[in-house]
């Protein structure tokens, strides 16, 4: 089902995922409005918990790609830096999720079939305790495109 940009939450092989869909097709197994609303509400209530609670790891390649895309859109300008989004602005949706224990992904490309290509933005770092959240579904329906086996993380996937 095609929908607007929403936050999805699921567990994949024991890892908690947060995905910003950017309007891509939501897999049927995750397309439950009541469950999604309850999870979104639960995370909104807990957003304050991330303040001062450990360190999130940031994939700097993602941040750089957003800034390069913005720079390309701006074109020739006397002072392009003033128009570029700040790192904190780019990360405002993803860093808090990592501090809540999620591997947080953004949709970087909508594919022809309505599916999305998702890139890791932030993930739990030192001092972050994995939390258990009620109602997060298990989901095995991702296609891994790139992973870092040494760090045990999925960098890029299709869904």
Give a verbal description of the structure.
With 159 residues, the protein is an alpha+beta fold. The chain has one domain (7-158). 25% of the residues lie in helices and 28% in strands. It has helices at residues 33-46, 60-74, 87-91, 95-99; strands spanning 7-12, 15-20, 56-58, 103-110, 116-124, 143-148, 153-158. Strands 1, 2, 3, 4, 5, 6 and 7 form a 7-stranded mixed β-sheet that branches. The longest helix has 15 residues, at 60-74. The relative contact order is 0.23. The mean pLDDT is 84.
Kindly summarize this structure in a few lines:
By secondary structure, the chain is α+β, with helices and mostly antiparallel strands. The protein contains four helices and seven strands; from the N terminus they run ββαβαααββββ.
Give the biggest sheet: 7 strands, mixed
What's the β-strand tally?
Answer: 7
Distance between the termini: 13 Å
Rough outline: globular
What is the string of helix and strand elements?
Answer: EEHEHHHEEEE
Radius of gyration over C-alpha positions, nearest whole angstrom: 16 Å
Question: Multimeric state of these chains?
Answer: single chain
Structural class by sheet pairing and helices: alpha+beta
The number of helical segments is: 4
User: Unreliable runs, pLDDT <50, ≥5 residues?
Assistant: none
Counted up, domains total: 1
Strand content: 25-35%
Mean pLDDT: 84
- Helical proportion, percent range: 10-25%
């Amino acid at each position: 089902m095609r929908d607007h940009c929403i936050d999805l939450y699921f567990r994949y092989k024991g890892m908690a995922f947060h995905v910003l869909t950017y309007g891509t097709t939501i897999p049927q197994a995750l397309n439950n409005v009541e469950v999604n609303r309850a999870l979104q509400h639960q995370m909104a209530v807990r957003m304050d918990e991330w303040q001062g609670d450990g360190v999130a790891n940031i994939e700097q390649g993602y941040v750089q790609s957003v800034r390069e895309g913005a720079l390309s859109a701006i074109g020739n300008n006397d002072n392009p830096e003033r128009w570029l989004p700040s790192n904190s602005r780019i990360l405002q949706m993803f860093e808090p999720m990592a501090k809540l224990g999620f591997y947080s992904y953004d949709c970087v490309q909508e594919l022809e079939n309505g599916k999305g290509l998702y890139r890791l933005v932030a993930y739990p770092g030192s001092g972050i305790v994995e939390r258990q959240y009620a109602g997060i579904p298990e989901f095995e329906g991702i296609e891994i495109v790139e992973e870092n086996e040494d760090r045990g993380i999925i960098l890029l996937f299709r869904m």
